[in-house]
Fold each of these.
Amino acid sequence: MVSLFAEVNVEALVMAAIILAITLGITFWASKKASSAVGFYAAGRQITGRQNGLAISGDYLSAASFLGIAGLIFLYGFDGFLYSIGFLVAFLTVMFLLAERMRNAGKYTIADVLSFRLNETPARAAAALGTFAVVTFYLIAQMVGAGVLIEKLVGINFSLAVILTGVFMLCYVIFGGMVATTWVQIVKAVLLMAGIFMMSVFVLAKVGFNPVELFNRADANKGPDSTFSLAPGTYLPKPLDTVSLGLALVLGTAGLPHILMRFFTVPNAKAARSSVVWAMFIIGFFYLLTTFIGFGARAFLGEGGVEAAGTGGNLAAPILAEFLGGGEGTFGGSLFLAFIAGVAFATILAVVAGLVLSASAAFSHDIWSSIVRKGKDSEHEEVLVARIAAFAIGVIAIIIAVIGGSGLNVSFMVGLAFAVAASANFPALLLALSWRRFNTTGAIVGVVTGVVSSIFLVIVSPKVWPGADTVTGSPIGWTLNNPGIISIPLGFLGCFLGTILSSGKPSEHSSYDELFVRAETGLGSERALEKVA
Amino acid sequence: MPDWERIERSDEFRELVKRRKSFVVPATIFFLAYYMGFILLAGYASDFMGESVYQGLTVGYCLALTQFLMVFVLGIWYLRKSENEFDPLADKVVEAAAEAEDARFVRKDEGTGVKA
């Protein structure tokens, strides 16, 4: 056991234990409400707009957002901030094009919207493919990130950290369904905002609450060979790559199944709309504060902190917290470090729980109940299958993360997830809701084109081919790391060509008129469970 | 079941769709253009973005702040516009449909904590 607990950070462990106790308490309370399908998948549609805004933030702001962006700003300066802008502006895409219409037209999964007026079996299969592709990359990225961070912050072994994360994630989802997942996300959002706000106040206090002074000091603190710059172009040196990434970020969020699924948890479209605006303000405030953390780490830790901050600068924020609390070895320093480590832990748990829940719903609701059992299964059976699917998905993710190990590149896999979401899920959903002629063939061709083209372009990208910082690294001479600029138009083109070149007719059980009227007015949309006092 | 086709052709519904579109379409074009403009500058004009406005405060950081501002303003604007304009129109469509269909499908409109 010595090797597993070599240098355990006791304060961080206690902090993690407190968070686990709170979240398991929530799960126990939620377990009674998660037995029906609408309870398990959609928390009875009783979540308010404000609660859902917090939960969306908790679902969205992964460890990659918190530690990753702070780390990128610390290492590269402005380019790290570009990610934040894309992640935030993306919510306008969600608000204007999907949120309310998804709530009005759907039930539990994005496939409900896609299959509304298309042939059910192939449309659900296509939507499930898109969901699984996104969740696989995103989930494995989060699990590996969790292992690396917990290993560093709490001091337990990588594999053990991954397994523990996986086990708790499964507890929330299997026993507490969407109710527990929602409240874990809300608790996490509050903790995360409190943590980053405290750190920002500490950072700004050191520069007399003058952010410009912070930028001055950060800029003064770059060494001669530093990658840090107040100007763009350090982390993303190729302009076209920057544009391609920007496009995938701004459209990708509108194709993330675990985020879109959150809109089914509110009573109506109005609450869906207000939840997006709440999320925008919370997430926007968060990303503004990450710049203080990133530039603060550069200003106070300087070039000397680069090595300690590790790959991608992920540990810059925790090390900065230790410094702000009084420095290494002081009580305040270890306490602040432990608090931020605990927040990072809660952050990871909330995101992976949301991901597993969306994938298990895609399996049980779309594949099992609708395709395999043709809707003849009982509600009890569907929820049971969802729990079993969650277990299987979780175990597979744990195994891949443990085998792939800490060498898997986390930000690369998150980028891939966004590219697939923007190229496969987003075009099909948008066109299903707004293009009268769109048909089943179009949906299938579009989703498959989006998934295949984005994965293919990443496989041949310079990132995957070592020694490829020159132009000739990729086997086909492909030089972009981010596939979005090609794969997103291809996804739309696939939907378009598939539709106009086929003679496919919409299915007979409902018309575009029905979907259109429902989506725009909420007439006939799924209702919330009555509140039980 | 409501007569979806008839509702889709009704004046109330057409009015709702027209009014909402006339806000959402330009707003979407605007925010995508403003965002992509920012990204293009970051990619192709890094020197300009790195220029100082005041000491360590760069053009890039200022433009980034305007992106935040745009998100907040459009978010609130759309919320207002929906509550004052689109929701009442949608209610009209639902009412008209309910009258025609014997009030079997009533839109649920409660529990949001947001007052119209």
Note: Residues 41 and 49 of chain B are 7 Å apart (CA to CA).
Amino acid sequence: MLSASVDSQFVHKIWHEQELAKMVEGGVPFPMLADAGGHLGKAYGVYDDQAGVDVRGRFIIDPDGVIQAMEVLTPPVGRRVEESLRQIKAYQHVRETKGAEVMPSGWEPGKKVLRPGPDLVGRVWEVWNPKDT
Amino acid sequence: MAEQAIGCARPTGSVAGDEPSATGEGKGLEQEVKSVADIMVGRPAPDFTAPAYHKGAFTQVKLSDYLGKWVVLCFYPGDFTFV
């Protein structure tokens, strides 16, 4: 986990001490990156040059350094951590099965997966129902 | 991660292949990148280095040091914002 904003690492330190450490037991465990100038945000397409800040972009990057998922929100609405975890678990499952198993809409760990192949074409309705999720 | 020496300059992050800008002014990524970010799922994440605060210390983080692990990279508008 890495977080990034245009604030300096010095501001991160004070924010952590003044507020975050009081909300998170043991303190924030991951590095808080300083993106002064928005160089990282620009590279990831999430820097708002009018506001001069990085918007809420979230990227899931796999062990090969490939972006598997991204989500971008405007500032007023926060993210849902559980959804990021669900997506990571889903991508880990896909990776472990080398793509043999894929996750239908609304999948959660332990729920039904699909095995794509010629026999499944047009017959998903027989093996999976939206109510299964 | 080695602890970073801290001076009065304001170091910032840089995308791999770009020269870090010591002051945050002058030669920055915006002058070197011609087009908008080319970000797409299924494609490599742009590598970068950036100064960081981590567990009481100032460090330098390089994305490619995390190869072999799953990484969640979260941008947000600013410290001390409300959401």
Note: The CA atoms of residues 24 and 33 of chain B lie 16 Å apart.
